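Suppose a classmate hands you a notebook page containing two proteins, each written out with its sequence and a corresponding row of structure tokens. How would you begin to make sense of it? This section walks through that situation. The first entry is reproduced here exactly as it would appear on such a page.
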Amino acid sequence: MPSRLKTLFVCAIVSLLVCETKAVFADGERDNDSTQVRRIPKEGVEIPDDVRAELTESLQHLEKQINELRTKKDEQVSSLLPDVEIFHRAVRVAIEYNEFFDQKEFSVAKALVATGSERAQQLSEGKSPWTRQTGLVVRGYRSRIDDTVQPYGLLIPDGYNFDDTREYRCDLWFHGRGETLSEVNFINQRMKYGSYVTPENTIVLHPYGRYSNAFKFAGEVDVLEALESTQERYRINEDLIASRGFSMGGAAAWQFAVHYPDRWFAANPGAGFSETPEFLKFFQKEKLNPNEQERALWHLYDCTDYAVNLKACPTIAYSGELDIQKQAADVMETALAKENIRLMHIIGPETKHSIHVDSRTIIEQKLNELAKFGRPFLPRRLEFVTYTLKYNKMHWITLNGLQKHWTEARIKAETRGNEVIATTKNIRDLTFEFPAGSYRFEMDQPITVNIDGQTLELPGPMSDLSWKTRLQLKNDQWVVAETEVELQAGAKAASLRKQHDLQGPIDDAFMDSFVVVTPTGTSPHSHVQEWSASEQEHAIVHWRRHFRGDAQVVSDAELTDEQIVASNLILFGDPASNKVLARISDQLPIQWTPEAISVGSKKYDASHHALILIYPNPLNPQKYVVLNSGFTFREYDYLNNARQVPKLPDWAIIDLNTPADSRAPGKVVDLDFFDESWQLAPAE
């Protein structure tokens, strides 16, 4: 290992161990009292007047430079501007929201502004030396979720040649929990402390993940957007990308392995957690009392439920022998055994919450061996499980519709010559697709699909050997779906159906572009008016605090047609106070009048009840509308990343006589999922 990398390696170990040690003491049984919830992140230290003045002045100068660059209308400048803006935003929000957690961070902030100003000056001169820099590099992208710039770190190997065509392996490394990991501290770490893993000739991507949320929800999208940005800027071999991490990052590595198994040549999770209920009982000593819907929603991120998907993703787990978080790999090992998969579990001898040096060597050797083969292109045999259309694809199989969400959906399929054989469970609509040349079908022969014991004879592949078919279950028989044109033409007349990225629950609306729409009118009920205003403020404040974004907010009178087309709408208020809600209220499956909220035959007094809901927007059914909610887990759940799962399904009725607290927006008196047609589920 070159001396420079050795130095980076040692610094990285120190940095990670400091971060993870803090994590060990950040949660535990003392965080099980929902009436005494400590603030995350904690309040920062006081900023001296002279420091504030100096930082403010330098930020103003950097802002002027950024504005001048924006006026250039140059495509290259625009594409690189986030690499400058991340420094401005990091320091600005630290000042604005009191998020300097140590006096040492003042000098860090000054250095970051100076770096941003230097990059801005270079960009104004038509230069961008950091784009051809090896070693540690921090870059940024603009997120589609809320239009904020978000940072990510890279380790570019010394041997990377910016001028040839060679593609490189890329390892994603997910960081551990860090309650003071502000943008300032993240960028500083990624500029100074190296990479915890340094495989030879490998680009290492360190996503920020929008703070400390275990890379879930918007943190999950951050990873995908940061990877996309990296792939646009560097030559990444798509068949040589790995999902890796330790502690909270290990939880992320499990999650990305089971949800996106066809994207990685390998996964390497270490410690962390892999599901919610058993981990919280074991690690947090927490007594859980979930309702039926919350228990169902554990299926969103519980990796044990998706264990069979690892047949498509070679996995090397790591745990310290004495680490309490060894539990994560242990429960995955049990889940995998039920699928006849033996987990490769490397255990660091007599080791607590760290990676043993000998184990590290073994892990790197095994990953290097797997990298020789890379990601399988299109395996002939697949087995895929999901509980939601959010995660609906593996290689040549795409699930378009389930019979019932949050119940296991499973498909087992294989190809034999010109035959596709499949068995399914809880699936009503699917697509088989083989890109050109990916599989050697006989070009002049039909393709037989044997699915659930039923045989369909279909036209053979195209002359480039591509082949695609979509099958739907109708009257318990699989039939070939109409063409895409016919499907689109009939969509207007057809009932709504849950589909990928339009399947709920409420939290899903905050994984894509969204706009908060504030009411300009007045509710006839003061209780509702005050509650909706408070919940709107809570949603905006906590979006920034926990997901490090700036919610886009408009009034109901200012909302544009372009925003309706491009974004999910988050409406606060009731039909009397919010003009947009008034426009669509009669098209929602739950009716809300000045007198009552009607859920089928059940009615709730509108003077002290409110409706929370997600539904395809009647003004644009390709996007969501959400009523009166931000993401649904609250301050109590920030205390442990395994708690950060959806707390509400597709709709809920809230009794406002019980005030909102750290766990709920009020007393939930009724709640449920909509059915697969986005209608009220029939009473059981």
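The notebook's second entry, a different protein, reads as follows.
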Amino acid sequence: MLEARRQNTDTLRTPGWFRTATRWTQLTFVEDDPDKYDPAFWIDVFKRTKSNAVCLSAGGYIAYYPSKVPYHYVSQYLGDKDIFGALVDAARKLDMHVMARVDPHAIHDDAAKAHPEWVMINADGTPRRHWAYPDVWVANAYGDYNSVFMPEVVKEIVREYDIDAIFANRWQGHGVDYSEDSARRFKDMSGYALPRKADAEDPAWQAWLQWRRRVLTDMIAQWDDAVKAIRPHASFIPNMSGASLMEFDLSVITKHCPFLVVDHQGRKGLELGWSAGRNGKRIRATFADRPVVLITSIGPEEEYRWKDAVTSGEEMQLWINNGTAHGLFAWFTKFNGVVPDKRWVDPVAEAFVLQSAVEPVLESMTPTAEIAVIDPSTTLRHWAPEERHAAEKHDLGVYHALVEARLPFELLSDQVLTRDNLDRFKVIILANASCLSDAQNEAIRAYVARGGSVVASYETSLRDEFGKTRPEFGLSDVLGAKFVSGPRGIVKNTYVALSGDHPVNKGFDGAERIMGGTRLIHVEPAAGAQTPFLYVPDFPDLPMEEVYPRKDPEGAAVVARETGRGGRTVYIPWNIGEIFWEVFAVDHARLLSNAVHWALGKTPRITVKGPGVIDLALRENAEGIALSLFNLTNPMMMKGPIRENYPLAAQTVSVEVPEGKAVAKAWLVVADRAASFSVKDGRAEVEVPGIERLEVLHLTWK
């Protein structure tokens, strides 16, 4: 503990300060907090959670310090107080890092009347009232409000207070702004009028997405330059939400964002616990070397917005510590400084203590895996953010199948398909990367030529980066299949039949056919390729007397081949990831697992045997490896309201020992004791006696 405190002190107010900002408390003030909240309670929370960093509301929509910037609204309850400054001072006395939060998404009447250009304009030309609080106005994120007014606010905060960064929430705007200024600037760049609706097929919509991307990335650079001009060690840190970094210019992020923040604060509806770790992986998919911070809310994240409620303690801990398992820094957020319901404090403190226990092992290691799922940014850009979830079903289904198969894996963005990035992995998975440029296809083709393996499905490479359908798969030679027709669907009552004897169709004993997909592409396999599954030609699903196949199986439903370069490819020409996500059929999970195992061509580096569902994450350095085993086993794991943690029974971990190495020690980090192990045939076998929530197995080499 003293060593950790010393390291934190050593990095205070230095350019690398963020590397020891690993456990964050965020307090988002409400307007009457200056009169009602208890600062002593929050200082105690800092201590109980072992927080070494804090994010505090400073300004933007409401200032919680005596701002002198014209039209920067100051809380009417502030009086002669400065609650922001007081907590900054208290945190610094605890040797904590400090970040100031600003929220520039809304403005009050006086500012709107003085500067109507600061207000977002609706498609009908009217100023936009706030959708949830009509007494105020929605700010125009693409004009002078963010490029002239907010930089003055930022500079005032950085100049007056001892902080390390400015953090902006809801800074990206809310849809299309139809002001004359935005319309003119957009047309000057694109030649189009502003689009009237989100439509992936509309070139004006695609052009607007590109224009918005440029405006926002320019803003990141402007705000960060303003911060550094006053405090050279500090940064502007934009909230990146829960998505991958597809909406931003990567070169600007590279230069200006030393760490990245994921704002996907909890589960919503049918969302699994591994979603927390996945969010971090998606950021790491583009910037593998950057620390990633995961924000967790103490309340539910449903559309009905119970922002001052408290969710179950188990759910909070699951979300925070699934991030822990994947090496993400912990951050919890509380809206409103007044705390009428304190049931969140103990669970958050427990989760943060668990985070602090594993940090000394994980911090010096790098995430690693033999398998990567390609994050299809080029494809997802063609979908409006509010509709993107439909396109992501393919990737979510594959993600869950890999978790069930207990295969450690990382994500890799299709924006960074460099040789070095690709060659970190033995297998890459393209769940439905329908839009790929010629350059992206060539990078994958070269990876296969170097011995890499590929598992792909559905429309992968059927469109170019602009969404235009190609006459042939861009990766036809890699997939071992030529496009014939499709896609067609939704098709009901479809099946695929086992064909021949192949590892991809193992484990379906007693079955001649299994469920197929609902969207189908017909392909011709290349010479030398095998077809472990064939389509069963469509037949009716009603009347029941008509439910029988009319024809024998025909047409490739899975194409598998040896590349001749040391790798293998498997192509599934239907929507297996999407339909698995919707239906969770065990046969689809088995088919995906078989495909990946066969493509890998060897026993996985890590295998874990035992009951339950476990989310695995592997990290390593020259001295050893750390395998995080996160317990997802729960009767309610498929939906948010987890009530109770169910401890997991013993697990047997088998690890491939690197050539020339020997196991020096096996240590259970959370249990804080040694584990027994044996070595045979180049693999170390370790018994993990049980897992409460998270265990980290640390193997060190001789």
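A careful reader of the second entry would note: The first strand starts at residue 23 and ends at 28.
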